[in-house]
Design brief:
It is a single chain. The protein is mainly alpha-helical.
Length: about 140
């Protein structure tokens, strides 16, 4: 733990929670990013404006943070571009298979005590640990 940041981490968690609660209160929707973005890709009729603004807000937040602290994005990846691409595809596959992502299940589902989200989040954590062990110990971190 080279960069222990309890204040920034707590503030980030509070902002994520407030965003999820705000979306639920004003739109009656769960803040599952994969579902919100995935539905935009299918070009649904009618129910798109809030989804577009939600995704634009995510992008704008990153751009504001980049403008405020450009050094925060200066880190280089420890893995090759191919490994990152495979990891992204596996995450996408898992998101589809689990009917939701970590934001939908982990943040919103757990806060509602949804049994399906508890199981999905447990699987996310378990397979993340297995993947990290395999890559770092069995493959020697070479991927």
């Amino acid at each position: 733990m080279d960069h222990f940041t309890p204040v920034a981490s707590t503030l980030g968690g509070v902002l994520i929670g407030l965003s999820a609660v705000t979306l639920l209160l004003f739109q009656g929707r769960i803040a599952g990013i994969s579902g919100i973005f995935g539905t935009l890709l299918r070009l649904p009729q009618g129910d798109t404006a809030w989804r577009v603004f939600f995704v634009l807000g995510l992008l704008a937040g990153g751009l504001v943070f980049l403008a405020a602290d450009p050094t925060a994005f200066a880190n280089e990846a420890d893995r090759s571009l191919g490994a990152v691409a495979v990891a992204g595809l596996l995450v996408g596959f898992g998101t589809r298979m689990g009917s939701g992502c970590t934001s939908g299940h982990g943040v919103c589902g757990l806060s509602r005590f949804a049994p399906r989200s508890m199981a999905a989040t447990g699987m996310f954590i378990f397979f993340g640990m297995v993947s990290a062990f395999v890559v770092n110990h069995l493959l020697g971190g070479a991927v």
